[in-house]
Structure formats: structure tokens, C-alpha cells
């Protein structure tokens, strides 16, 4: 029998009343991202996250064609609803395929009888939220992001239709906070500047290896009093371990030699300061004043324990001393 930890510290999103724990549970992996996870392991991961003090849980219809939402909802249904924050996403409706596939063709180990239909219209947003509520069985979704409006026309429709629809739902009290999530920082700066979005989820563009978001979305958030949730802080694996393997991934592909070498230099300096590369990757993202939290994928209870433990790996001299050292050596932007 484990003893649950105290809830992790939280940060408020804008003035919405929505408070995110600094570390969030990324539920893509319990939607069978890349490989299957059984129901018991998925449930154990969510339970372990709660016991570790994590109170922010992020999912999406895209993750396992609804499997992630169903598993997360089942695991949280008996928890005190007011003690946690759940986010999901709109922009991909799940519809039966005219020609079913044996397995999903978009990274998830699930049957391919259902496909994703991109829809950033007002009606698409409303249908997506209704279907997410049905899959999760929860009474509400606290935070809703528009998911990956990557094409120019999708971003335009997000700004013109999807986000105004979400803002309307927020004003009605249906959801608590609204925004968009992408792997690109400049479009998210547009979202913050051109809509009444509260926050954005930025994947992979503000890490120990990449700080391009300092040129656009982070200053926009700081200027407007809005928030950023930094995800992909391990750059899809390259920063996830102190010992960087030769086959480490970066941006979902094999990392090039120069980035492997850079990650190993970062790891060596982290060790000199008495911490580890993954702990520094998390702490670096959280150090920016516009960042309210980070989300890590957690496939099982052991990964939850490991990830939660990263928050306590502060170097003896403090994080600013490490950032200064990395900057002095040309490994980090000042």
C-alpha cells in the first residue's frame, strides 16, 4: 500500500481559475503510442501519477483513436473531480473508415477501423467536445486545445472559427481555459496575439537543445499575461537519459551525430553540477516565467516514479548556476 504524496505545486493559467500542476501526465502513451499497453498497466500509470501528486492529465481523441480518453476517464472517474485538471483537444474527429485498416497508420498500436477527420470548424469543435465527454465519462473538460492546425488554412480557420467557439464555451463556463497546441512556435504566437486564447501547448521548441520559442511565442505570452505549457522537453528522447545512446531520437527520427554530441556535452556538464540531463531538461522549461507546466508521457508506474523524481534533482549550486555555465560554453541562449 503506497502513501500518496502531497499534490505538486500548481501555477494558474491567466486569470481563469485553472491551476496546472507543474508536472502533468501525458496520456498519449496509454493510447498505445508506438506499442501496446494493457489496461492494467495503463490504469497503474494513472494511479501512480495521482499518488505522486500529479493533478494535471492531458489527452486527445488522436491518441489511440479514443483509447487514451477512455482509459484516462475510467481511471479518474472515482477521483475527486475538483482536485484534478483534464485537458483534451479538438480538430480531429473520429469516424468509421470506408475501408477499415488492420491497424492504425498514425503511430498507435490500435485497430484501424476508425480514422481521423480534420475539422477546425465551429461545428467540428462542438461535436469533438461532446464526443470526448462521452468517451471519458467525465462531467467536463477543464482545458481544450486546438490540435495541430499545421496547414496555413487550418491555422486561419482555427483563428477565425475554432478558437472563437472555444472562447464562447469558456465564457459560458463549459470549459475553464482554451488554446492551441503545435510543434511550431511562430503560429502559436499568432494564436496568442490574434485570439483570446488563454494558453498554448508548445511541443519541442523550448528545450535545452532548442530555444527558438524565445523569438516569438514566449515573449508574446509574457507580454499578454498568457501561458505556455512546454511539452516534448526531451526532444522525443534525446534528452531523456543521462547516458545518451547512439540510437536516440530527436523530433521522432534518429538524432544526427552533431546533436548526439551536443546532448552528451550537456549531460557531462549536468553531472558536474550534481544533477542529470533529464532533470535539467524539465527544470529548464519550467524556469521561464511564461511556462505554467510541462507534460511528460508516462507508460507505466515505474516511469511515473522516475519522472516525478526529476523534480527533486536540483543541483547543489542551484539551477541558475547551471544555466549560466551552459550559456558561457555556448550551449544555451542567454
Task: Report on the architecture of this protein.
By secondary structure, this protein is α/β, with parallel strands linked by helices. It has helices at 39-51, 67-76, 122-136, 152-171, 185-194, 217-224, 257-272, 277-287, 301-309, 319-328; strands at residues 10-12, 19-21, 23-26, 56-58, 85-90, 92-101, 112-118, 143-147, 177-182, 199-203, 227-231, 249-250, 253-254, 291-297. Helix 1 (39-51) crosses helix 2, helix 3 packs across helix 4 (152-171) and helix 5 (185-194) packs parallel to helix 6 (217-224). The longest helix is centred in the middle third of the chain and has 20 residues, at 152-171.
Tags for this model:
334 residues, alpha/beta, TIM Barrel, two-stranded antiparallel ribbon, globular
Short description:
The chain is an alpha/beta fold. The protein is 37% helix and 20% strand. The strands form four sheets. Strands 3-4-5-8-9-10-11-14 form an eight-stranded parallel beta barrel, surrounded by six helices.
Number of helices: 10
Main sheet: strand order: 3-4-5-8-9-10-11-14
Number of strands: 14
Helix content: 25-40%
Question: What topology emerges from the helices and strands here?
Answer:
Blueprint: E1 10-12, E2 19-21, E3 23-26, H1 39-51, E4 56-58, H2 67-76, E5 85-90, E6 92-101, E7 112-118, H3 122-136, E8 143-147, H4 152-171, E9 177-182, H5 185-194, E10 199-203, H6 217-224, E11 227-231, E12 249-250, E13 253-254, H7 257-272, H8 277-287, E14 291-297, H9 301-309, H10 319-328
Amino acid at each position: 500500500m503506497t502513501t500518496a504524496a502531497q499534490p505538486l505545486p500548481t501555477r494558474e493559467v491567466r486569470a481563469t481559475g485553472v491551476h496546472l500542476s507543474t508536472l502533468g501526465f501525458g496520456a498519449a502513451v496509454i493510447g498505445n503510442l508506438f506499442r501496446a499497453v494493457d489496461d492494467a498497466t495503463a490504469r497503474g500509470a494513472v494511479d501512480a501519477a495521482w499518488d505522486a501528486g500529479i493533478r494535471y492529465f492531458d489527452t486527445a481523441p488522436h491518441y489511440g483513436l479514443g483509447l487514451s480518453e477512455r482509459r484516462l476517464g475510467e481511471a479518474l472517474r472515482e477521483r475527486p473531480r475538483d482536485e484534478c485538471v483534464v485537458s483534451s483537444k479538438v480538430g480531429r474527429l473520429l469516424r468509421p473508415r470506408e475501408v477499415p485498416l488492420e491497424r492504425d497508420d498514425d503511430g498507435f498500436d490500435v485497430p484501424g477501423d476508425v480514422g481521423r477527420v480534420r475539422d477546425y470548424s465551429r461545428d467540428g469543435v462542438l461535436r469533438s467536445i461532446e464526443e470526448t465527454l462521452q468517451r471519458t465519462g467525465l462531467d467536463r473538460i477543464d482545458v481544450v486545445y486546438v490540435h495541430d492546425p499545421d496547414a496555413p488554412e487550418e491555422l486561419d480557420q482555427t483563428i477565425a472559427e475554432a478558437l472563437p467557439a472555444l472562447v464562447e464555451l469558456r465564457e459560458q463556463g463549459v470549459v475553464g481555459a482554451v488554446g492551441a497546441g503545435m510543434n511550431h512556435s511562430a503560429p502559436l504566437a499568432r494564436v496568442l496575439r490574434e485570439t483570446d486564447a488563454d494558453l498554448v501547448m508548445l511541443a519541442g521548441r523550448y528545450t535545452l537543445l532548442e530555444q527558438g520559442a524565445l523569438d516569438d511565442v514566449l515573449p508574446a505570452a509574457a507580454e499578454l499575461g498568457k501561458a505556455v505549457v512546454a511539452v516534448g522537453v526531451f526532444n522525443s528522447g534525446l534528452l531523456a537519459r543521462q547516458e545518451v545512446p547512439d540510437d536516440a531520437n530527436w523530433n521522432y527520427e534518429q538524432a544526427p551525430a552533431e546533436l548526439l554530441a551536443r546532448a552528451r556535452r550537456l549531460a557531462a556538464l549536468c553531472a558536474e553540477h550534481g544533477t542529470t540531463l533529464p532533470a535539467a531538461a524539465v527544470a529548464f522549461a519550467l524556469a521561464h516565467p511564461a511556462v505554467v507546466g510541462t507534460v511528460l508521457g508516462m507508460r507505466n508506474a515505474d516511469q511515473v516514479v522516475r519522472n516525478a523524481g526529476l523534480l527533486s534533482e536540483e543541483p547543489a549550486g542551484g539551477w541558475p548556476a547551471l544555466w549560466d555555465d551552459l550559456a558561457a560554453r555556448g550551449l544555451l541562449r542567454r
